[in-house]
Amino acid sequence: MPIAALAVVLLIILGVSVAVAFGLGALLYFLLLQGDPAQVPSVAFRTLDSFTFLAIPFFLLAGAIMQSGGVSRRLVDFVGMLVGRLKGGLGATVVGACGLFGAISGSSIATVSSIGRIMAPDMVQRGYPRAFVGSLTAVSGILGIILPPSVPMIVYAVAAGVSIADMFLGGVVVGIILLVFMLVNTLLWARNKDLDDRGLKFATPEQMDAKRRHPAKRTLAAVPALLMPLIILGGIYSGAFTATESGAIACLYGLLVGLLVYRELRPKKLGRTFVDGVLATAPILLIIAMGGAFARAVVLSGVPADLVRIFASIDMPTWVFLIVLNIALLVIGMFIEENTAIVILTPLLLPVVTSYGVDPLQFGMIMVLNLGMGLATPPFAPNLFVAQSATGAKFHTMIVPALRLLTLGVLPVLIVVNAFPVLTTFMR
After folding, report:
1. Rounded to two decimals, what is the model's pTM?
2. How many whole angstroms separate alpha carbon 312 and alpha carbon 325?
3. What percent of the chain has pLDDT over 90?
4. Using CB atoms within 10 A of its CB, is residue 36 exposed (0-12), middle (13-18) or buried (19+)?
5. What pLDDT does residue 207 have?
6. Which are the contacts of 87, defined by CB distance < 8 A and separation ≥ 6?
7. For residues 51 and 58, is the Cβ–Cβ distance under 8 A?
8. Which region, left, alpha or beta, applies to residue 200 given φ > 0 means left and ψ of -120 to 50 means alpha?
9. Are 95 and 370 spatial neighbours (Cβ–Cβ below 8 Å)?
10. Cβ neighbours of residue 341 under 8 Å, at least 6 residues apart?
11. d(CA 266, CA 278)
């Protein structure tokens, strides 16, 4: 197993695709130690041969449909109507819009890209430092994988054998807490800044003036978009449909809203929108498949059992173990994509975690939050790279503001989740 693991690390350092690296590592293990390399495609197929995993392409496609259909702008306009006139209101609008769009797309990257492109030009003109705009968007994008539907939560639920509905419900609670912390942090930052928060300007001035005079119309325009999370979660928790079926319904609903209600999703744009959904889905599913094969090799090697014995012999208090676990997950998230880390680490760490009495649902939320922080923490920091493209901010200028936002906005929520398991296990 050490040889296979070393091969994976070297391949990733050399720039080889993560999915290919895990596939070759698994092939090396099964070829050298098991003598049956055919297990790699077999295990990879069985990993994806799950009805539950269909939720991933459905939700990502629904997010692409809603983005192309004008949903993002309606959500931004709605949140801006509520908080846009406060000192720091445009920053608060970014946080709120990321939360609402994340509750539709299930993707952090899609959330950062969509909201950043809409908000950045107007915010910079109104006195917000471009570096702060980029870092705020990147960190707020973490809400996209905390508030359901969350693709990493689906991946974890399948890998850990827990209920997706229970994970989503815990995500609602933690996501709302994170949203509040981010909002307060943003408003406090803006207290002594020279900012001009007089509302958004995503439409023509005439349209914006008309909407400013009629808040009811702005709210009504956002209702179809706001109904999406309610339909998804309401259907799951009422038992009307499964998480996977809710993804398909979200796609259908998004098409109807984009084509018939907002009328921004033209038939000629459908092809491009479907391609965007496929391009967002394919890398994740490839990583899950090859990661599943490598994870199977890890389990067969006996590493999880060895880890359980090692930690049992140390006999450290649970709170010390949680500190070590969180630090390890955060460091891993700084270098490895979150879905990849979940596929590999869940079978490896879950036996150890449960041996310390930590509930799998709490562990799932701890993992997703830490890996989410890793999305905005250099050197990997994909959210920062996407924010750089979406907002025009330089990567190096966003590092310090992003670390400040992570420390003051996200880290306290992570501590709360570790200290109070009931936040994620109350549905049991």
Report:
1. 0.82
2. 15
3. 21
4. exposed
5. 43
6. 187, 190, 191, 193, 195, 197
7. no
8. beta
9. no
10. 329, 332, 333, 367, 371
11. 19
CB 405 within 8 A of CB 142: no
d(CA 124, CA 272): 30
pLDDT, one tens digit per residue, over 35-64 is 677 788 888 888 787 777 788 888 888 878
Between CA 92 and CA 83 the distance in angstroms is 7
Structure token pair of residue 271: 């092809």
- Of 133, 144, 207, nearest in space to 178 by CA: 144
Helices (H), 334-381: 338-355, 360-375
With a pLDDT cut of 70, the percent of the chain lying above it is: 91
Which residues contact residue 5 at a Cβ distance below 8 angstroms, ignoring those fewer than 6 apart? 25
**Alpha-helical runs (H) found in 84-214:** 89-105, 108-125, 130-140, 143-146, 151-160, 164-189, 205-213
Residue the block writes with tokens 């942090």: 185
DSSP label of 54: G
Rg of the chain's alpha carbons, rounded to an integer?
22
Q: Calculate ∠ Cα 131-134-136, nearest 5°.
A: 105
Q: Which two tokens stand for residue 92?
A: 């608060």
- CA atoms of 270 and 264, how far apart (whole Å): 11
- The SS3 call for residue 133 is helix
365 pLDDT above the threshold of 90: yes
Residues in the chain: 428
Q: How far is CA 114 from the centre of its chain?
A: 14
Is residue 178 classed exposed, middle or buried when 0-12, 13-18 and 19+ CB atoms within 10 A define those classes? buried
In angstroms, the CA 149 to CA 318 distance is: 30
